[in-house]
Amino acid sequence: MFDVTDLTRVTPVLDSRAVTFENPTGERGAGGRAGGGRKGAPSRVIEGGERVTLADLAGPGTIRHIWMTFPPDRPARMRAVYLEVRYGGLSYPSVSVPCLDFFGSPHGRPVAYSSALTSMPEARGFNSYVPMAFGERIHVDLVNGNPDPIVLYFQIDYTLGESASGRLHVGFRRENPTVSKRDFVVTEGLRGPGRFLGWVGGVRPIDGGQWYGEGEVKVYRDGDREFPTICGTGLEDYVGSAWGMGPHAGLYAGAPLEVSGRGPIPKYVGFYRWHVLDPVMFSTDLQVTLQQIGADRGGLVERVDDYCAAAFTVCERAQPVPPVDVAAAVADLE
């Protein structure tokens, strides 16, 4: 297997390509032909409700980097734009997620940050370096779930040749509100063997109090039922901080988004956690959950809040994830 992180390798065993509106098929020697080679098609207007194919590629290969941008707008309009990916001509998506959540910032609110796998420079450019291996074929769509048009710029960088066996799955979930004493499910239902790569999460605190994030992240794997194999100590600890959680960003964990409220609890929080150097592997089944527990006046309290998650899981075979429900995804974001 060719190691792209070995920067001393120069043997051209991989065929490097890119898809844009300038070269929608990724053909060799076909980029930039629009407008006589003078930047004739850098972007496109995507009408309200329109589904546009960003890439339809024959493999084997691997998508290495996705960049895109669309103009800043109200949070509900930003979040209504979503991605879907299908492998091998399958009818169902294995990736279905709002774009901003996929690139690391929930609640329809871009925020400037950088991590090992995703980044949003100046809160305007959206980048993902999560590898997306494919075999016979991969089909990438973007859907404008708004009634009005948007302007889209994008580039997908990929290689043809060797391909890993695992297929990236990204599913989106939201509970608005959660149910008291019932843990929020980040992901479940995908069959192994596989690897939980991590997730982008968001909280819109509804209950009052002093602190919302005392709940434990739990990882149930390979037959765990009543109790998990992996159990954390609190949300802020899980994303690498402690004693509360303010805005921060690191390579593998961070909470860059915070919209301040009138009291001690913010209105909106966004965080991410990548299990790169601390892999979470499973053979047969996986469930990841987060408790809704807070702290008030020195004691633990059960809470009811608004939680969302974009969960990234690599599985040996392609499987369906729930399609994005745009109405549920954009509710209460203003």
Q: What form results from the Cα inertia axes? A: globular
Pick out the low-confidence regions: none
Cα-atom Rg, whole angstroms?
20 Å
Strand elements, count: 25
Q: For the report, how would you describe the main beta sheet?
A: 11 strands, mixed
What structural class do helix, strand and pairing data support?
A: mainly beta
What is the H-and-E element order?
Answer: EEEEHEEHEEEEEEEEEEEHEEEEEEEEH
The span between the termini is 47 Å
Mean pLDDT: 95
Number of helical segments with 4 or more residues: 4
Estimated helix fraction: under 10%
Proportion of strand residues = 35-45%
Give keywords.
11-stranded mixed sheet, 334 residues, 8-stranded antiparallel sheet, mainly beta
Please give a structural write-up.
By secondary structure, the protein is mainly beta. 5% of the residues lie in helices and 43% in strands. The protein has helices spanning 75-79, 99-102, 235-238, 326-330; strands at 15-19, 43-46, 51-58, 61-69, 81-87, 95-98, 113-114, 118-120, 126-128, 132-134, 137-144, 150-160, 167-175, 184-191, 194-204, 217-221, 230-231, 248-249, 253-259, 268-274, 280-282, 285-290, 293-296, 299-302, 306-315. Strand 7 (113-114) and strand 8 (118-120) form a beta hairpin. The radius of gyration is 20 Å and the shape is globular. The termini are far apart. The mean pLDDT is 95. Residues 28-39 have a biased composition (Gly residues). Pfam families: DUF2961. Residues 21-42 are annotated as: Disordered. It comes from Amycolatopsis tucumanensis.
